[in-house]
Every structure is written in structure tokens, then in C-alpha cells.
Amino acid sequence: GEEARAQHRISGVLLPQLSKPEGLAAVPVLRPNEAFVLSRINDLWSLREIGRIAPVSDMEFGMIVLTLLQLGLVELRHPKGGPAVP
What we know:
Layout: H1 2-9, E1 15-18, H2 32-39, H3 47-53, H4 58-70, E2 74-77
Antiparallel strand pairs: 1-2
């Protein structure tokens, strides 16, 4: 389905970045695992690296990343710079 296709476009080498670091006070209530993943975004670790330490399955990690993208909290960038258009 649509979510599976979107998940395949989320490559493990991409670097997640917080979209609105100053606006995190206005973040909607996240589930604990979503908050964990969000808290590990540091502009250094790739999705693959964060996925390795996240206490969830690969599939759930992909769904969490999708949720954070859809909420506008996270943007994905290529390691060499420039936005990654999923």
C-alpha cells in the first residue's frame, strides 16, 4: 500500500533533522517510542544508526519516521547535503 511504498523511499543512509527545533514545545503528544526516536535526532546519526538503538522492530521504526515526517517535526537530508525528497 501507500505506507509500504513510502517506507521503501526512506533510506537508512538519510540524515534526519529537526524541522522546528525552536517549536518543540508545541509538539503534539507522541507515543513513547516516537519520542525516543525524536530525542535521538542530532544531525549526526543516520536513520540506520538511530534504528539500531531504537527499541522497536525495523517496520515500526519506519512507521515512526513516517509519523514524524507527517507531523512536520523531521526532515530528511542526504548525507552529502541537500534535501531528500521522499
